[in-house]
Amino acid sequence: MAYEHEISREHPVAMIFLIDQSTSMEDPVGGSEEGHKKAEIVADALNRLLVELGYTAAKREGIRDWFHISVIGYGATTGPAFEGPMRDREQVPISELAQNPAGYEERTKKEYDGAGDLVEHTVTVPVWVYPVHNGATPMHDAFTQAYTIVEDWLRRYPSCFPPIVLNITDGEYYPAAQNPAAVIESLASLASSDGNVLLFNLHISDDRSAPIVFPDSADALPDEFARQLFTWSSVIPPKMREEAAQKKFRVSDGMRGFVFNASIHEIIEFLDLGTRGATAGALPAAEPR
Amino acid sequence: MRAAVWNRRVPKQGHLLDDCEDAAFPSRVSRNERQGLRIGVADGTTEGLRSGPWATMLLETVCRARGDLRLNPPLTRAMRRWDQYMQHYLRERLDNDRPIQWFERRGLDIGEAATLLVASLAQGPGDGGTWTAISVGDCELFHVRESSLLRWWPIADSSLFGRSPPVVTSKCGTAHEVVEEAEFACGEWRPGDQFILATDAIAEWLLSDHEQGNTPWAGLTTLLTEDRSDVFTAWVSDLRQAGSMRNDDVAVLLTDLS
Fold this sequence. Notes:
The complex is a heterodimer of chains A (289) and B (258).
Chain A: E1 13-20, H1 38-57, E2 58-59, E3 62-63, E4 67-74, E5 78-80, E6 92-93, H2 94-99, E7 103-112, E8 118-127, H3 139-156, E9 164-169, H4 181-189, E10 191-192, E11 195-196, E12 198-204, E13 212-213, H5 224-231, H6 238-246, E14 258-262, H7 264-279
Parallel strand pairs in A: 1-4, 1-9, 9-12, 12-14
Antiparallel strand pairs in A: 2-3, 4-5, 4-6, 7-8, 10-11, 13-14
Chain B: E1 2-10, E2 22-25, E3 30-33, E4 36-44, H1 51-64, H2 74-95, H3 102-110, E5 113-123, E6 129-136, E7 140-145, E8 148-153, E9 168-169, H4 175-181, E10 183-189, E11 194-198, H5 200-211, H6 217-225, H7 229-241, E12 250-257
Antiparallel strand pairs in B: 1-3, 1-12, 2-4, 4-5, 5-6, 5-9, 6-10, 7-8, 7-11, 11-12
């Protein structure tokens, strides 16, 4: 059965995030009461996810290199999107990423205290990616870089849990002459001994239209661009389907890693499922209740 | 009651024995004549930062407690001891200019967790006696008589391993919740019986092998009573490489009663 290999320091998993940094990412996310820009929401969600991955892999005085992370931004330029000490790094093991954030931000966290009261306290968390919104949408270039990263990765780790590529965009690729279809097809055909590369796509909404989440058919999709992203998205493997079911998503055998018209909630769920789904059952786990 | 106890611990492939988060009690081979004996295994969860030491402390505290076998108050004692241990550990880190890093913070806030299985063997008026056991989680007890499996507990079927089991956490204030999750069993033993206590990865393999109609007990006894520990380690490694056993820490304890 595919997508079953264990994730370990000897057999880590590659996670590649492609993030649209075009000018339109300055617009607010559909459904955002506070008018948060799409670029801000995506950067924030990605930073939060990287923190979660750090917690997951943490051990005493260190981090197990279960994950190797790439973040490729595409806009005016296409390339690594880490800031700070990891700037220009195409792929970074999680331990190195954890020790070298671009900076720290304060967040307010609400938790129940021992008396059952909700209390606020401030936590300081690391960040690695900042919002950028400038230029066109050279999706072809982003997927080409992803292909190079994945091809090299599979050469080094031929029996790994397959690499996961998550693309987050708010619109069609541009320049229109640079259709990424061929490179995406090539990328999707790459495989480890445990299965093909997993390719997930998320489209961020401009408006309050209902999101379409993990569909199993292109029938209900509103336009050609949505249908294109659907066909570019991998079928979700069984273990990830189980995770989706636990999160109360409607599941089916043919459901794909694709979200259209996502708002803040779907962005977070998409990233969580796309990465945690890889680790569920692949890491030795017994979670406290 | 004469009891001979052997145990083995094997870390995950590629890890050192110091990294092994599974524990066994007693931690050394012993041969004794006594009225009663307490044995146990515990399995620290991977998410914890110091779950191995918690598993060991918890197991020892429950096993060394006097009186009838029970989870509380030994559990509360273990939690308090752990609190003191962690305070000392954090002070030491600060004193040695090794402050807690951001990725360790959540693990410290959540605390440690482990599964636990402890059995108490008592001499009866005749040649045999009785046993009682407490379990939280998915460690397994195998009661073997004349190379046949008489009883296995608490996991009834090998397919039931691999799910998120209940665990014993180190956080004070959770003791009553843990006690609610605990399972209890009891039975009788005769001279010549064996008790094998095992953490989940090897327990799953043993139960699965039994379900396939095999009798791994004699072979396991030979491996565990072998003077050289590397023989058992090599056997575990072979099973892992064949894909028959999950790559997870292993702790297994064999008690021969006579």
